[in-house]
## 1
Amino acid sequence: MVDTCFLSQGLTTLAGLLLLPFGSLAASQIEVGVRPSERQGPAGDSCVVAVCTSRFWFNYRHVANTLSVYRSVKRLGIPDSHIVLMLADDMACNPRNPKPATVYSHKNMELNVYGDDVEVDYRSYEVTVENFLRVLTGRIPSSTPRSKRLLSDDRSNILIYMTGHGGNGFLKFQDSEEITNIELADAFEQMWQKRRYNELLFIIDTCQGASMYERFYSPNIMALASSQVGEDSLSHQPDPAVGVHLMDRYTFYVLEFLEEINPASQTNMNDLFQVCPKSLCVSTPGHRTDLFQRDPKNVLITDFFGSVRKVEITTETLSLQPDSGVIESRVWVVYESGSSLSLAFV
């Protein structure tokens, strides 16, 4: 008996061996026809929610902040299917933009963080406190497309990055509403209770940013902020051609730090804590680790910013006898058929 599903065009012929555990994995659990990137929360996967809450041209830097993080996590292997990108304004197509379809993070237009493959999931007036909280908690209407969902579970490491204008205990959304640190803390607790994350890294670049993580109380959360309570988070990289500052100081130095990271890097979170000292940021960056179970020096940057699969190697011999708990192997074969590619197993 042969089951067939069609995959995307242009792949080369492949073959693999799939061992199906008997009993612990029923046949009904086999996801035939589902791309790996669409399966919910494979072990070791990272997910990202990147949010810019500001509108208007003079807030260009907040869009550039968010796109810088988006660009970095994609470069390190996290696919768009695992990223929820929320941009409250479209600077790339703003009529004031001297270089349409671009957003730059460095003066003299050295680095375009917009690129040519940006997938914005929530844009303009879709970027609201309600939609943000629904993405985190999974309380989304059934009609919502997969691209607007955070497909995570209790095996997922989640990076949440936010930037915009804030104050002591709040972050503004589009100058019309606010999310408070209590609301954010309660949303993370819902995520924990609903088994929507394994570990969570929260980063915020805003004025008085540290106030946003003061109320967190859920396990396995590490938090970073660009400024302490009572401090402003300052802009950086003024560009006369664009007419505004291109980025905020904290995210600018985080971006420079991430540009040196590759998927095999052993750089850890303690290194990230040091990227923007007061001498560079002017404000005082902060971090909180008391809720996090692991020592930050043992947490790799790629645990949150990259997609590095965790592999367990065993030297044990597995019996393939019928009574061993492992049923017969099935061979997957990929072959071309006209302009399509087919996958079959027997």
## 2
Amino acid sequence: MAEIIDETSSIESTTVGVFRTSSTVAGGRRFSFAAMVVVGDKHGKIGVGYAKSNQVPQAVEKAQKEGRRKMVAYPLLRKTVPHMVEGHFGASKVRLLPATPGTGVLAGAAVRAVLEMLGIQDCLTKSYGSTNPKNLVKATINALEQLQTREKVEALRGVTIGHTMVEQAVERGLAAMPQVRTGEKMQAPKNTLGDERRRGGGRGGPRGPRGPRTFEEAPAPAPAAAPAAAPAAPEAPAAG
């Protein structure tokens, strides 16, 4: 994972690996750690640092400082390499090939760390020989040192070179990619089939809108009826 080490200049770093070594002394074993870190600004500048210390954090910090001191700019072509290059270091060999926009970086962990810190987003790679991450990183740097722009080749050879096949392929790829205006996010296509049947709030669909609430006055209660009068008692017959 990339780590920002300088917010003012947007310099990030990625730790390729931490290596532990031990030495046997009279009192036992003494351990030390070495760290390899790739530092870059993702805009064409990159540096590799390798440092040792008795603790891992100190080794990583020293490697980051060394990587910043060794940062070098390399020519790029629209987030890819301008032409095919091949680098060697020890028993490792790394080949970098340009790719059209949208391809991505197809590489292993060590080679990917170098390319991503450099700012390359589309590149095809192939590694041969040793898979030692130290050798792969240095072989990738050796390949990047061989990159040349079209203008530099024209100046060295004294000839005029038209648009290369890589430049034409990159332009076609950019034209085919969807354009997103600043401030807007790209949205995936939305399936609207059957929306008209789900508007009523059926099972699994959105609920329908709530109707307006109306308040009606309750009717006034009817007046209570007067109680009926009790019937009169019959008169007793007169005595004879």
## 3
Amino acid sequence: MWHYSAAEARVQQSGRVVETHGKFHRVWDGERILQAFPGGRLALSRNRAKNLIAIGDRVRLRPQDDGTALIESVEERANAVMRRLSFSGAEQVIAANVDVLAVMLAPNPVLNTGLLDRTLVEGSRIGVPAAILVNKMDLLSRREVRRTLTPYEALGFPIHLLCAKRGEGVEEFLAAVRGRWVLLLGHSGVGKTTLVNRVAPGLDRTVGEVDPTRGKGRHTTSNAYAHGLADGTFLVDTAGIREFGLAGMGWRDVERAFPEIHAAREGCRFQDCRHLAEPRCAVRSAAEEGSIHPARYESYLTLLREVEGQGRG
């Protein structure tokens, strides 16, 4: 007769990773949050190049007698938001299985769209829609917002104007993403954690101030955490992003992520035109004439050179 321990007899169940820190993870099983650790082959793996377990992963786990759980397997990811780290060249998974990429901007001292364009390129690569959040509207004029974001509005990207500290515009944003997993991206100090504290009262995650000497926020979130709301929405609050190197893509991926450039390329003389210095380039002509916004064209060139420098042409 076979005898099983109580742990072995426990039924394997499903869960969703809501926090990850080294080999320590928190997993939401639909009713409670369990402290979980990799088990089996996951525990023995020496693969350090990419995250074996990332926030948002759907996992199979087995509860243990001490109230923790072992993660026995990770289900195939529907998508994975990735970035390349400049100091090592390694590709890091920021989050998996997300439904919306919400990139937050704030004056620093003006709106900077560098991270926004990188986020839109990554969203295009993995097939996930993006939303643009403009926070600290009490420090901005609507004229400045329109001047900076008109090209994005014309392309159909949803734009939400917020003052998270006062709660202005927050309900409208939450209504637009209800029931979905939303990855919040932005530089330190733009207000991601303030937004989370506003919609999840009692959580009181530490809010940072902007360093007046550098105009940049101090890190207040050291690792990503998915906050579940009563309506089924999950907001993934990430550490302030200092770098978002593009990962796993070639120049065609970058081109497709700029809809106005991808459309204009039909008029180029050469099918493999990269819109740099090639003769009879319709994209360059459109940028010079203003039908493609010059700032968007310059952003495309920056990202194109980045991926070509990685040897992914």
